Amino acid sequence: MSTAAASQATQNISYSDLYARWERGHWLATEIDFTQDRIDWQEKLTPEERKAALWFFALFFHGEDEVADDLSPYVEAAPLEEQTYFLTTQQVDESRHSVFFNRFMHEVVGLGDGSAGSGLDATKGYLTWGHKETFRNLANVAQQLRTDKSKYKFAEAITNYHIVVEGTLAQPGQHMIEAWLERADVLPGFLDGLRNIAIDEQRHIAFGMKTLADLYQEDPEGIGDVIIDAIRDAGSYLTAFAFPEEGKEMLAPLGLNLEELYADSMRALTSRMRGVGLTEAQRRRALTINPDISFEEQGRMVLQMLEAGYLGEGRLPKSTRPEDVTLLFEMMRNLIAGNPPKDGTVVQFDLTDVGPRYFLQSGGALEYHQTRHPAPTVSIKTTLADFIDIVGERANPVKLILQRRLWVAGDRSLLTGKHSVFGPPTKASARKVGLLERFGF
Ligand SMILES: [Fe+2]
Ligand SMILES: [Fe+2]
Fold this sequence. Notes:
The protein is an alpha+beta fold and about 450 residues long. It has 18 helices and 5 strands. The chain has a 5-stranded mixed β-sheet.
């Protein structure tokens, strides 16, 4: 296969330079002055602004605490001494970030008794489902890394930590908070700390990119698959990370909007994948969203899917509005186009409550028709809600078949396994796919 070289910027990174930058970049979380912040918090910010800020800051506080806890297996698994040295500096950084956030929560907001545990306890109610799932997964992978120190597990762990959590979720959010604080001219101590954190995170992400680019260079296909799987596996909860239960207007009191945050995250993820060296075909396999549209449009689509109840925890009612269903099938089209079946193949979706539609692979292109085909190669019949729960891995298709809520006819090999039009199974779904195959699904 053809491989793309890591970007020049990634190639220019060296572990010893990153270490030296850490030595030069010391700052003191315990000495940041929060005097003006206390005044601003009480007197300048409105209750709505405080609520929005606290929600956003709590995601970061807990994130910092989680990443500080999960890094030690990385230190042990790193193949190069220079990587070990850098990772120990990163561990110190993450603890410093947690100390900083805890100080702010206690000394400015007045939460907890000053101990980290009490600060975390007092703010855990703000966490989203996507946040909890993201860090549950990160902790799982870190745990696996304790016993499996292979380069593949290490690459998976670095993808989750440095590319997804730091590079896709944390950094765009931090930049957004910085922009708000500068514009509103409030919380100078917090802004000072956040700027220092951003410089630390820049180093951490650079380390992750360099490490992955080196591993990828040695084995573009094997490591590429690991990175793609890790991003695909994270997709369902990663998209819901910053999606508040109160709806997407949560940050409006701060003059911020989630559309912008989601666009920035899509932009960041794409640039990280490019920087590591993934080819365009590999990048397409990692995302179920069409990479040819603008990042703004990608961000809007993800938010629309969340609001429609198609992505995320699955608690929101699933929308049957035509514009939402159309968007869902645009995503399906992108997924199938990335794993094209042979010419003439017809994949029929008979959604009983929103009408039938099918995809036809014809002359190297994928056609979409909103009707029933007379002779589909494979067809799936169910309700929209059950279909979305299957795609989101919340419902077991075998159970649905037994309950007579799902019917599958025709060539089932197009739905699961290596030749699935939905892409080869990711590691996270492999166990479930095995179950499906036993039942001859
Ligand atoms: Fe951090
Ligand atoms: Fe970090």
